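User: Could you go from structure to sequence for me? I need the amino acid at each position, not a summary. Structure tokens:
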């Protein structure tokens, strides 16, 4: 991930947020992390692991208690609810989305959050596994958190700020809006999804039923993050066909497809165009598996770049290398197939510039410097963009996702809550 800091001059308009408000996001968050909602990469069911539903179904009465009467969970575990408009203006329906599941990479069972009040600087040793240390030199963001209250794990599990912080912040923002009817807003839709971490969070997402025109996932990291770009992604499958003969009688007859594949892999560009040699906005071609025998060897690639046109250039390059390699093995052939995976969401978001503009303006209004970032990967929001729901990703405040070193500052969670309220308010103002 890379950052581009956008410099906006300080905005002196009157504060929009009631500074006496008692936030509820932290209490909610500490409750949510107690649910083990680890999703399952191997599963083919939906949701991938039904234990996610334990949290999802408990979010429904919580939404109802805030006042969202139509809150419900569908058969797949998607929780949806509506905060009705309190204005006569014709405001686009805006959605806020977060995911209930946590990454299968690290245990999410028996999470014991530890609150480090009034952080004084320095490395944070996690109490239950003292080999686990959140180091300042690896987490320079800690330097901006002096005096903050930081929630960490005890060192034995992940925390689940990804994305239970997002859920808690959305809940709190809705709670604020209900408690402050003088703050005008259009219709607001809420959705909490399962299975984001296993890439399936949008699989059963009913965009038409959700009914929002634009949405925001609250699933980013650092305070101020506004993510409007993802990679564009294709997969390439190359099949090298050799010729198998009993090895005892193979002279001048056998063509070993594994050797063709090895020669082809060796011909790939070196020092560039691979994950291990690129960063920022550079793309790559990346072999992810080789499976074969004498007769047939299949090589799978993933192809990534922020510019879709460049994917096609990379694919042409691979095709040329395949042809050159196969030509050295008379009698061998190769199949070359391209599979489209996903596209940079900026292609959609550029058609709806207001979505990003409102988020950035909201950050300015609450004195947060917007950090525009490009994700070297995909997001559920990117998929939603191409399903007809333009959805950039905004910060939820967590750091070191998918690890025992995960942490989130209470002050950042409260800032994210303010951001959500302010976004709702700005859409109304601009209508
Ligand atoms: Zn997440």
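Assistant: Here is the amino acid at each position, in order:
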């Amino acid at each position: 991930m890379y950052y581009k800091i956008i410099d906006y001059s300080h905005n002196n308009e009157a504060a929009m947020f009631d500074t006496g408000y008692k936030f509820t996001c932290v209490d909610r968050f500490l409750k949510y992390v107690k649910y083990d909602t680890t999703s399952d990469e191997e599963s083919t069911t939906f949701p991938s692991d039904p234990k996610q539903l334990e949290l999802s179904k408990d979010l429904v009465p919580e939404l109802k208690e805030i006042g969202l009467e139509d809150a419900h969970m569908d058969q797949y575990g998607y929780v949806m609810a509506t905060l009705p408009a309190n204005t006569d203006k014709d405001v686009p329906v805006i959605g806020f989305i977060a995911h209930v599941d946590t990454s299968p990479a690290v245990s999410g069972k028996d999470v014991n959050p530890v609150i480090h009040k009034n952080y004084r600087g320095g490395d944070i040793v996690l109490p239950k596994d003292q080999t686990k240390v959140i180091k300042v030199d690896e987490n320079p963001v800690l330097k901006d958190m002096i005096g903050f209250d930081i929630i960490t794990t005890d060192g034995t599990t992940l925390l689940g700020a990804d994305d239970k912080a997002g859920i808690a912040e959305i809940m709190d923002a809705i709670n604020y809006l209900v408690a402050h009817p003088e703050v005008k807003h259009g219709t607001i839709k809420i959705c909490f999804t399962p299975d984001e971490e296993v890439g399936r969070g949008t699989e059963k997402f009913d965009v038409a039923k959700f009914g929002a025109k634009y949405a925001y996932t609250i699933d980013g990291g650092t305070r101020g993050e506004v993510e409007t770009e993802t990679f564009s992604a294709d997969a390439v499958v190359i099949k090298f066909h050799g010729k198998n003969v009993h090895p005892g009688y193979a002279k001048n007859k056998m063509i070993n497809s594994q050797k063709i594949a090895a020669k082809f892999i060796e011909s790939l560009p070196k020092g560039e165009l691979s994950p291990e040699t690129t960063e920022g906005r550079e793309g790559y071609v990346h072999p992810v598996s080789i499976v074969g025998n004498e007769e047939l060897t299949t090589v799978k690639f993933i192809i990534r770049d922020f510019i879709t046109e460049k994917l096609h250039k990379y694919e042409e390059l691979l095709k040329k290398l395949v042809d050159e390699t196969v030509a050295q093995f008379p009698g061998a052939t190769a199949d070359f197939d391209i599979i489209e995976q996903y596209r940079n969401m900026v292609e959609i978001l550029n058609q709806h510039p207001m979505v990003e503009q409102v988020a950035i303006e909201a950050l300015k209004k609450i004195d947060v410097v917007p950090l525009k970032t490009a994700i070297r990967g995909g997001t559920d929001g990117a998929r939603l963009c191409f399903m007809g729901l333009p959805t950039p990703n905004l910060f939820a405040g967590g750091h070191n996702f998918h690890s025992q070193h995960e942490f989130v500052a209470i002050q950042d969670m409260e800032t994210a809550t303010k951001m959500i309220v302010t976004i709702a308010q700005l859409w109304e103002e601009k209508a």
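One structural detail worth keeping in mind: Residues 1-14 have pLDDT under 50 and may be disordered.
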